[in-house]
Design goal:
about 210 residues, mainly alpha, 2 domains, two-stranded antiparallel sheet
Length: about 210
Amino acid sequence: MLLEKIMTCVSERDENKAIEALHLAMTLLRNQPAVLQYYQEATTTTTTTTNKEGTDDCTSSIAYLLAGVLQRTAASSLIRLSSVADRAFVELLSVLSDKEKLQIIGSLLREWLENNEQKSAVRALFVCLSKAVASNVSRATLEATLDPTILIKGYNHTELVVRRACVQAIVEMYKILGEGFLMTYLAPSLRIDQVSLLRHYIGCSSSSSSSS
C-alpha cells in the first residue's frame, strides 16, 4: 500500500528520503484525499471497537498510524525534517472530519502519555487538540470524543510546557461545554488549587475574547 510505503520511508534514517516521502504524502492528501478515505474505510469497517472510555477506538486506522509517524517525525531534532512533517500533519488533519481529528489526537495522547513519550511530542498534540476544538467543532462531536483522563494526565504532567498546552485545550473545551464539563469531568480528580488555576485561565480567556 502506498501510504504504508510512505510511512516506512519517513521512519527511515535517511533525512532526504524521508522529506521526499513527506512531500509525496502532502501532495496525495491535497490532491487525492479520496485515497486516504478509501484506506480509512478499508481498515476501520471491520476493526472499529469501543475502548474503556466509551469512545470509538481508531488506533487501527491508516490515518491514526500516519498521524503517529508524522507527529513523531515533527518532534525530530532535524529542523528541516521536523518542519515538513509538521506541515504534513496539518495537511492530514485538513482532510479529516472533526470527529476523526479529535479521535486520532485523543488516541495518540492516550498512548503517548501512558508510554511517557518525549515532552515536545505530547505538547504538540495538546496544541493540535486545542486548535481542533477551537475550529468551531460542535458540542455533540466534542462530547462524543471527550476523554477526561487525557486532560487530567496532561494537567498533572511533570513538564510545564505540557501542562500549559493541556490547560489551553481545557479552556477551549470549556467555551463549548461550560461549567458542567469542569465540575463533572475534571474537578473530582483535581486539587482545589488546580481547579482555581483553571478558573483563572478560563476567566482570562473570556476577558480577552470580550475585549477583542
